[in-house]
């Protein structure tokens, strides 16, 4: 199951829920060419990995000044905080490709034996560098660098 959330629900549906399980947040857009494939991949993975919570939120609702060029974007949360940020995913990413990438980050266990894609052009950030979100994502601050968008309180 995929949960569609709004910004006021973020703390409960993402931060608090991730205390017990992994939560994967997909930033969506009304531009289906930009995020349609990653949304479909996340929905497929939600059916396959029912022990992981999958949430979707419009990128402008989630983070008011998030650059559209960073889409498709996925955040992974555990223990109440962001653990990984995957930005600029391939526009045509498949469910198997996304499953492989998430397995390499330790978010899920896969039965795939090899990377289904030869494309590795993805930006992955881990930990807390560059951006600060308030506990309910009330504020976004970034450093000068466009590479860092992933600190969460």
Short synopsis of the structure:
This protein is an alpha/beta fold. The chain has helices at 10-16, 32-48, 59-62, 95-104, and strands spanning 2-4, 23-28, 53-58, 73-78, 81-87, 123-126, 132-133, 140-141. The strands form 2 sheets. The chain has a 6-stranded mixed beta sheet with strand order 1-3-2-4-5-6, with helices on both faces. A two-stranded antiparallel ribbon has the order 7-8.
Biggest sheet character: 6 strands, mixed
As a percent range, the share of helical residues equals 10-25%
Classification by helices and strands: alpha/beta
Q: Write down the overall mean pLDDT.
A: 81
Count of DSSP E strands?
8
Distance between the termini: 27 Å
Task: Please tell me what the overall shape is.
Answer: globular
Q: What Rg do the Cα atoms give?
A: 14 Å
Strand order of the largest sheet: 1-3-2-4-5-6
Low-confidence stretches: 128-153
How many helical stretches? 4
- Write down the secondary-structure element order: EHEHEHEEHEEE
Beta-strand proportion: 15-25%
SSE arrangement:
Elements: E1 2-4, H1 10-16, E2 23-28, H2 32-48, E3 53-58, H3 59-62, E4 73-78, E5 81-87, H4 95-104, E6 123-126, E7 132-133, E8 140-141
Parallel strand pairs: 1-3, 2-3
Antiparallel strand pairs: 2-4, 4-5, 5-6, 7-8
């Amino acid at each position: 199951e995929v949960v569609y959330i709004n910004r006021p629900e973020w703390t409960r549906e993402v931060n608090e829920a991730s205390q017990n399980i992994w939560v994967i947040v997909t930033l969506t857009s009304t531009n289906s060419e930009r995020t349609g494939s990653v949304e479909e991949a996340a929905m497929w993975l939600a059916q396959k990995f029912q022990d992981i919570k999958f949430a979707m939120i419009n990128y402008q609702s989630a983070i008011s000044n998030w650059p559209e060029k960073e889409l498709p974007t996925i955040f992974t949360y555990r223990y109440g905080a962001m653990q990984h940020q995957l930005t600029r995913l391939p526009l045509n990413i498949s469910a198997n490709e996304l499953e492989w990438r998430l397995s390499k980050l330790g978010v899920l266990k896969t039965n795939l034996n090899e990377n289904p894609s030869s494309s590795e052009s993805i930006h992955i950030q881990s930990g807390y560098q560059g951006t600060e979100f308030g506990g309910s994502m009330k504020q976004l601050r970034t450093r000068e660098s466009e590479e860092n968008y992933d600190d969460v309180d």
